[in-house]
Structure formats: structure tokens, C-alpha cells
Amino acid sequence: MSNTILEVNQITEKIIGAAIEIHRSLGPGLLESAYQECLFYRLTQKENLFVEKEKPMPLVYEEVNLDCGYRLDLLVEKQVVVEIKSVDALTDVHTAQLLTYLKLGNHKIGLLINFNVHYLKNGIKRLAN
User: Fold this and answer.
1) Are strands 80-85 and 71-76 parallel, antiparallel or unpaired?
2) Alpha-carbon distance 39 to 98, whole Å?
3) Containing structural domain, residue 108
4) How confident is the model over 52-65, as pLDDT tens digits?
5) pLDDT of 66-115, one tens digit each?
6) How many helices (H) and strands (E) does the chain have?
7) How much is the pTM?
8) Burial of 101 by CB count in 10 Å (0-12 exposed, 13-18 middle, 19+ buried)?
9) Contacts of 16 (CB under 8 A, 6+ apart)
10) Is beta strand 109-114 parallel, antiparallel or unpaired with respect to 80-85?
11) 108 near 129, Cβ under 8 Å?
């Protein structure tokens, strides 16, 4: 197994562990922005990871760079895209959104985390590009 894959797996484990701790403490029902702030704090202050919050995601079409207002919720260690939701259920649209962000940003791994569930493990999807 290459070092990059191992590093990405370690990063995703830290993200998932932090998300589970936040969910245990706060439970479901809050706004996405609240979970985003908590996860950002936990990852930067407790896990010592480099995290970019609300990172702009430009859309490049042919030779034109379009600023369409797309933003990644979190980009961890410049490798893992984290898309945070607080919805009744994840849908194909949420999955497509994350896959598009992975493609546009040339990132390999993304986590789709829905905090509005009873058990957080049921609200996490790991996607690869």
C-alpha cells in the first residue's frame, strides 16, 4: 500500500472519529453550519490537521474560469473533501454533488456526512473519484 493511500485512510479515520464525537455530544437536528464549525474546530485544534473551510471551487469550462459560488464545506490536508449535510436522508443528488466537487478539484476521496441521523455511522458515505 502506498504512503498516499495510507495517509488518506488515516485522514478519513480522523475525520470520521471527530464527526462521531461531535454527533455523540450534540446529536442530530442542528444546522449544517453548526456541525461544520464544530468539525473544523475539532480537526484543526484537536487533530492538528490542515483544514480549509468554505474553500471556493471554480468551474472551468473550456478556457473560461467561472466563479459560480461553489464552495467545499471542508478540504482536509488538501486531499479529502468533506461535504456536511443535516437532512432527513442522503439522496443521489448529494452523492452527485460530492462526486462533481471531487472531479472539479481533482481530488480522489470525499466524505459525505449527514449529521441528522440517529447513528452517525448510518449517515457517512466515503466516495472516490
Assistant:
1) antiparallel
2) 18
3) 3-128
4) 999 988 887 788 87
5) 777 789 999 999 999 999 999 999 999 999 999 999 998 999 999 999 99
6) 3, 7
7) 0.92
8) buried
9) 111, 124
10) parallel
11) yes
